[in-house]
Amino acid sequence: MNKSLKNPWVYSMFILPALILFILFFIYPILNSIYYSFTSWNGVSENPKFIGFENYIKAFGDERFWESALNNGWFILFSCGIQVPLIVLFSLLIANVKRLKGLYKTAVFLPSIMSTAVIGILWGFIYEPNIGLFNQILGLFGIEPIYWLSDEKYAMFSILLTNAWQWTGFYIIMVLAAILAIPRDLDEAAEIDGANRLQRALSITLPLIKPIISVVIMLSIAGAMKAADIVIVMTKGGPAGSTDVLATYMIKYAITNFKYGYGNTIAVLIFVFTLILTALYQVMIARRSERIEY
Question: In this structure, are residues 226 and 269 in contact, taking their beta carbons and an 8 Å threshold?
Answer without folding.
Answer: no
